[in-house]
Specification:
The complex is a heterodimer.
Chain A lengths: L2 E4 L4 E4 L4 E8 L5 E7 L6 E7 L4 E4 L2 E6 L4 E6 L8 E8 L6 E3 L3 E6 L1
Parallel strand pairs in A: 2-11
Antiparallel strand pairs in A: 1-3, 3-8, 4-5, 4-9, 6-7, 7-8, 9-10, 9-11
Chain B lengths: L4 E3 L2 E4 L5 E6 L6 E7 L5 E8 L2 E4 L8 E4 L6 E5 L8 E8 L8 E2 L3 E5 L1
Classes of the chains: A mainly beta, B mainly beta.
Chain lengths: ~110, ~110
């Protein structure tokens, strides 16, 4: 069956360190993979999109990698700040269906 | 440019009542998606609509749920005869016709069924 898995446990890190979040998937061949941020009581906010033929994408302090052989994406936040504390969602877009398939999300807490 | 608008933000219904959730997409966006999020779970796709057409409703329960996106006005997600299990956050997203892979989400409607 098709599955998207993200670290179910919260990730606690110290301010200034790099946070690394993992997204693994099975039985998909996604054309794109995306990362969203969600704060409590709010809708997801789009952060980054990476295509199947791209290995890495960067945006300011954010970096995403996409390994279609391992079926895994890693999401990095460098020089993390308490304001980065949120739930981060991984989502696959399977082209023909026009819908996003979301993981359950990983909660990140950055401590001062 | 205003983002995706949803209303109401919070909705309380008693079992058996109807719930109507509204979504106005971003200006220029003709594609609307509805997702449901249960507590501590990820978002689950429900339905994908274009103006006056339902394109994919594979995630929508077969009974009591319906969606529309008329030529004029917002998209509506309608839940008839609500039950406690319908309590969730319902998010609407929209995308432009030329970049459907990037979806912009509204703030959600939190439905509580008593």
């Amino acid at each position: 069956s098709q599955k998207i898995e993200q670290n179910s446990e919260a990730l606690n890190i110290q301010e200034g360190k790099t946070a690394t979040l993992t997204c693994n998937y099975t039985n998909y061949s996604p054309a794109y993979l995306q990362w969203y941020r969600q704060d409590p009581g709010r809708g997801p906010v789009f952060l980054l999109l990476i295509r199947e033929n791209e290995k890495e994408k960067r945006k300011e302090r954010l970096k995403v990698t996409f390994d279609t052989t391992l079926k895994q994406s890693l999401f990095h936040i460098t020089a993390s700040q308490p304001a980065d504390s949120a739930t981060y969602l991984c989502a696959l877009f399977s082209g023909g269906y026009n819908k996003l398939i979301f993981g359950a999300g990983t909660r990140l807490a950055v401590h001062p | 440019n205003a983002g995706v608008m949803q209303n109401p933000r919070h909705l309380v219904r008693r079992r058996g009542q109807e719930a109507r959730l509204r979504c106005s997409p971003m200006k220029g966006h003709s594609h609307v998606y509805w997702y449901r999020q249960l507590p501590e779970e990820g978002l689950k796709f429900m339905v994908y609509l274009q103006k006056e057409n339902i394109i994919d409703e594979s995630g929508m329960p077969k009974e009591r749920f319906s969606a529309e996106f008329p030529k004029e006005g917002p998209s509506i997600l309608r839940i008839q005869q609500v039950v406690r299990g319908d309590s969730a956050a319902y998010f609407c997203a929209s995308s432009p016709p030329t970049a459907q892979e990037t979806q912009y989400f509204g703030p959600g409607t939190r439905l509580l069924v008593l």
